[in-house]
Each structure stands twice: as structure tokens, then as C-alpha cells.
Write a structure and sequence with these properties.
By secondary structure, the chain is an alpha+beta fold. The chain has a 7-stranded mixed β-sheet with strand order 3-12-13-19-16-15-14, with helices on both faces. It has a 5-stranded mixed β-sheet with strand order 23-22-24-25-26, sandwiched between helices. Strands 5-4-9 form a 3-stranded antiparallel β-sheet. The longest helix is centred in the first third of the chain and has 20 residues, at 40-59. The protein is flat. The structure holds adenosine-5'-triphosphate (ATP).
Length: 532
Amino acid sequence: MAQESNELMDKLAALCKRRGFIFQSSEIYGGIGGFWDYGPLGVELKRNLKDAWWQDVVRRRDDVVGLDCSIIMNPKVWEASGHLGGFSDPMVTCRQCKKHMRADHLQALYLESEWIKSLGEEGHLIEGDLIEFRSEELARWAHRKGKKLAPGLALVRNPSVTLSWLAERTEKEGKPVTMSIGDWLAYLATEQLAQTGLQAPCPHCGGDLTPPRQFNLMFKTFVGAMEDSSSVAYLRPETAQGIFCNYRNVLDTTRLRMPFGIAQIGKSFRNEINPRNYTFRSREFEQMEIEFFCHPSEADKWYEYWRDARYKWYVDLGLKSSKLHLRNHEKDELAHYARACADIEYEFPFGTSELEGVANRTDYDLTQHQKFSGKDMTYFDDQTKDRYIPYVIEPSGGVDRAALALLCEAYTEDQAPDENGQMQTRTLMRFHPRLAPVKVAVFPLVKKEGMPEIAEKIYRDCQAAGLSSFYDEKGAVGRRYRRQDEAGTPFCVTVDGQTLTDQTVTVRDRDSLVQDRIAADKVLAYVQDRLK
Ligand code: ATP
């Protein structure tokens, strides 16, 4: 299962690079961990996703307006929000390979660990994940593969001590050791602990891990010419605080009354200890957040409204509901200020993980900003004469995580006939047409007899109507179709010999491969209709 998932992610990442969806940032210099660039197709996908969100949560509503705040803000903001004091993760560091890891991610890292896999292969799988080892096998592993894969592991550094330790406990009757992989890890940790007095073994090299320390995730910088404590500033770790700081400005400059929301899309930065799973956990990413302000007595109702609306939004964009989960947090999982919280999660090939969180944050944020800024954050209702600090419902999603979910969901391999009628494996990206980076591709069958001119006119008409369109006259038409399948283009229009006599063209559907014949001058209307 884990292997299949890795294969799928590898294939997807290869397609994303080959076709220009996602590149490593500064790739020519070897890249930089946790930073990614979106290529020509990726940027269109992301833009379509953000546009869909903006349309649905801002433009099509009367009660939500947009905002675009600066990334660097007065550092007091982060004192008030609690980020300076508490926005940290527990970090452990390997004393051997110097890698840093999140202590609460160790289990997941063990599952991917090369040396643990190799140790697993050394034993004999007898049932489920139960493995039998003999001391000789472990000694051999420690001597050969272990040296390369886990040079820091006590079993590799000092096999005789470790093996006699093991033998004393488990091989008393000359039997092989039988353990599950999980127990094996626990054993290795205990054994390492016994020998070194330190923590569990490093998932990368088996070395000793330090005890966990808190690590603040905010990126620091300096504003102005002086680099001293008075000029320290931070790159925002979330877009939400810009909204809270502007809550009064928005109220004062619009006709909005309670309840109302403010929405923002923008970059956020977190110095993640382990950026991983492709773009899922990055150090620079985009968020799409709404802060919806309401009367405290209506907060429960609005929380449920937004939680369900946001879940449905992802289903409507084409994520299968069987892979989307709405997970309500247990009371003991809630942040101290939150009254309720739910995660919208997607089953990625690497595991089920959060796309968006929806929380009832009570009046915590506005109260904090009132306290730290000294500015009045109350709302006066002139009808009821009620004065209060509003409660806030926050749907907070990640653009890059949603884009990755859409890429995973779209990736499909099927069997389709090639030009010679031979069945071949075809790779296609089944994006919802609303999100597809290119909506329509137009081809002349051959580069002569006036076909390119007709095709180019259709292409220009689609382009002028604002559809992301593509013209291609190079190579065999079958190859051109395959390229568009990988880009996820829902419609391919081909001008052929028949067009010259009856002014019709074929429109090929990416998913069904059905080809409709329609009048050349109806292509634009046809595509627009299908995009609705
Ligand atoms: P996680 O537990 O995965 O670190 P979080 O609960 O800290 O996430 P929030 O602070 O609730 O995340 O951020 C809101 C949204 O921002 C997340 O649902 C996610 O979509 C996105 N997001 C947060 N951190 C990252 C990151 N490092 N890379 C990409 N997207 C992120």
C-alpha cells in the first residue's frame, strides 16, 4: 500500500515537472527545501482555483467582502495573536546527521524510513506485519546494509553489545525473535535509550535524537537599515490577522452590518521543521481565509453553515466525496479559545490530511487586538442597542493543498486506442472543466489545404472570448491529443478534410474520447456551454 502510494506520488510529480505544473524552486542551484514554483499549467490551475473561491465566497454573496493585506505587519500583531509566544512545534534533532524533525511526526517518518524498510526485508515476514529475526541475520544486516542506511544506530555502531542485549531478553530458548515492525521500533528505541540514555533512533540514520524543544515557526526579518531588536519583523504565518486588524476599517467604509465576512487570499510563511509530501507542507504557501463576524448567540449556527458549505465546495470542484472527510475535533483537541472546529480532510496517496479547517474562534482575536492596540473592537447594533465584540467563524484553507488534492484526484491511467487502433496506456488529468488549465486545444489535421487558417481562426475566437486556449499543428494528431490529455484539456477541436467541404470540425471529449461533429462557427458556444 505504502509502496503503491509512493509510486503514484512519484508518477504525479514526474508529470507535474514534465508538463510544467510544478517545479522545484531555484532548481538550477539544487533547489531549496519547502519552496516550490508553479509552471505555465500549474499557475493556470491555481488561478482557476482561487478565482472559483473568490467568485463563490465574495462575488456571489452580499455579506462577504475582500481584502488584500501586507505580508509584513507591525510585530505587535503577533504578540496580540499569540504567535510570538506560542506558534511553535516540538522539534527533535539528530546528533548524528543533524536533521531536524517534528517530534509529533516521527511515527510517519519511521513508516518511510529506508533503514527500517531494509531491516523489515531482512527478516522473514510470517504473518501480517509480524517479522522473525535471528541474531545472525541482524548481525549481517548491521555489517552490510546497516552501515550505509543507519550508521548512527546502536545496532550498527556496536552490534555485539546490542545483540547480546537482545539475546538475553528474547533468544533464551534458541528461538528466533518474533516481533511486529512497530514493536521492533519500540525495541530499538528502548535499546538505544539503554545504551545512550537518549531518545528514539533517528528515522534517517538511526542516530540519537535530542529531547524535543519548542521551535517558533515564524520567519524573522529586519525592517529598515538597522539590524537590531527594534527592527525585527516577521513574515505573516497566516492571512487572518490582517483581516482582524482591518475589521474596523471595513465596517467604517462599507455598509456592511452584522453578520458579515471578510475574505483574503495571500501568501503565508512558516519555517516548517519538515517540509514534506511534495507541496503539501511547504514553507511558503497561499491561504484562502474568511473571517465571518456574527453575534455570539448566532455563532453555533454560522459555524455549522460554513463547515457544511465549505465541505460541499470541494465536492463541487470535483473531489470525490468518498475521499473527502469532515472530521469534527474532539473537545480535548480544541485550541483554548475555540468553541468548535472541524477539518476538511482528503485522502492523499500519502495519507489522509487537512485541506481546510473551519473554527468557531469566539471573540478571542478581536478581544486580544482590543487589549493590545487599545482600539475599540465592539460593534453597536443600532436596532437592538446591543454592544458586543463579535464572534468569528473562520474557514481557513490552503490553495496549494487544494491544488495538490485536485492533481491527485485528476491523475488517471486508462487504456485507449492509439492511431493504429492498438490499446495503449494513456495518462490523463481529469480536471473539472472549471479548473482545467487549458479549456480548449485546436489542431489542423495537417499543415496544408487551408486547414491551419481555419483552425487558427477558431483558436483566436476562443482566446478573444477569454478561454485559455492552445493551438498546435506539430506532429501526429494522436500525439497532440495525448499531450492535451496530460495537461487535462477537456476539449480538443480538429479541423480535417471534411471541414473543407461542410465547415464542420470534430470536438473530442478528454474523458469519454467521444468525438462530436459540429459546425466550425459553433465551437466557442459549444465549449462555453460545456464549461457551465
Ligand atoms: P497542519 O496541522 O497541517 O500544520 P495547521 O492546522 O497548522 O496545519 P492552519 O494553521 O489551520 O493549519 O492553516 C490553515 C490552512 O493553511 C491549512 O488547512 C492548510 O491548508 C494551509 N497550510 C497550513 N500550513 C501549511 C503549509 N506548511 N503548507 C501548505 N499549506 C499549509
